[in-house]
Amino acid sequence: MRVVIISDFEGISGVHTFRQVIKEFGKPFEKAKTLITEDINAAVRGLKAAGATEIGVVDGHRWGNPPNIIDEKIEAGATVLRKKRERDDFIKSCDAQVLVGFHAMAGTKDGFLSHTFSSILGLALGLKGQYIGETAWCVWKGAYTGFPTIMVTGDAAVVREAKSFFPEITGVTVKTALSRTSAECLSLKKTRRMIEDVATHALKNLSQFKVLETPEPPIETDLVFASPGFTDPVAAIPGYRRKGDRWLSYTAKNWPELDEAFSMALRLALSQLVNLQENLSGVESEQVNRYVREFVCHVWESKFPPLPKLKTHREKQVQPKQPKL
Ligand SMILES: [Zn+2]
Q1: How many angstroms separate the alpha carbon of residue 115 from the centre of ligand 1?
Q2: 0.70 cut: is pTM over it?
Q3: What is the Å distance from ligand 1's center to 282 Cα?
Q4: What is the model's pLDDT at position 94?
Q5: Which domains occur in the chain, in start order?
Q6: CA 301 to ligand 1 centroid distance, Å
Q7: Poorest-confidence range of 220-229, 266-275, 289-298?
Q8: How many whole angstroms from 151 Cα to the centroid of ligand 1?
Q9: How far is the CA of 60 from the centre of ligand 1 (A)?
């Protein structure tokens, strides 16, 4: 039985400040790499106990660049899939997916480090008239490939969010946000035990998880950025339409087209920041690092700008599909 684990950082046990999830902060990040590795290991042990024979780990936080997991400390029986080709090949024939260390969507006030794909861009993502987060995105992406998502771990807000979209998903709450940038964590011993036990229980009951249909085409998406400055290069991509000075929309015929259009939008919007960094070339690297740290602090600590109301319309009920046995 083949299972893929997608990991993120904000919802990892023991992570309670943004300094732990950003490499540029140095020591706190280096220490937190052990925390993310151990949450993944707990899930690996649990999945193995339920019969998983192949476990692939996708280092999802900042697309694994720089790496967040200590690969050589991952439990035997699991492999961190660093190359795109390895990941694509592994995911093609998976039986289930597990999300470890996730966080709530942009704009969630009681979500620890809540954001959607990029906090620096201050991005919010709407799909068919409803804001969604990374959890729903990953669940649907897995469903499109043909497997169910059986478990999510993270703070109380992401577990609540996941269950509001997918009531059958199992959740492990490892912390509760005290504000968007601070959290009260349960003990590591307790959360790792819970992750292991819930992973075993969920995989043992795999037949009870449905492979969901992905949202019915045409798939209308809305991208709302914190600042109008990020929207210009995205508006130039064929298919994107402007709806406001920081708001763009795109309608996709199917999931792969949406995936491609969305990744391109993220890359181009982020390239605005790279331009900014290149303008700093020649400046002492210590100064650049200080600049990055200040910028990141500003992003996390500033208030998320209010989001526009998306047009909501009644969805056709999504029909669950029986899993392949
Ligand atoms: Zn994330």
Answers
A1: 7
A2: yes
A3: 31
A4: 97
A5: 2-118+133-208 (3.40.50.10780), 219-301 (3.30.1360)
A6: 17
A7: 289-298
A8: 16
A9: 7
Average pLDDT, the chain: 89
3-state secondary structure string across the chain: CEEEEEECCCCCCCCCCHHHCCHHHCHHHHHHHHHHHHHHHHHHHHHHHCCCCEEEEEECHHHHCCCCCCHHHCCCCEEECCCHHHHHHHHHCCCEEEEEEECCCCCCCCCCCCCCCCCCCCCEEEECCEEECHHHHHHHHHHHHCCCEEEEEEEHHHHHHHHHHCCCCEEEEEEEEEECCEEEECCHHHHHHHHHHHHHHHHHCHHHCCECCCCCCCEEEEEECCCHHHHHHHHCCCCCEEEECCEEEEEECCHHHHHHHHHHHHHHHHHHHHHHHHCCCCCCHHHHHHHHHHHHHHHHHCCCCCCCCCCCCCCCCCCCECCCC
Give 98-150 pLDDT, tens digit per residue. 999 999 999 898 999 999 998 888 889 999 999 999 999 999 999 999 999 99
Give the range with max mean pLDDT: 154-158, 211-215, 244-248, 302-306.
Answer: 154-158
Q: Ligand 1 centre from 51 Cα, in Å?
A: 28
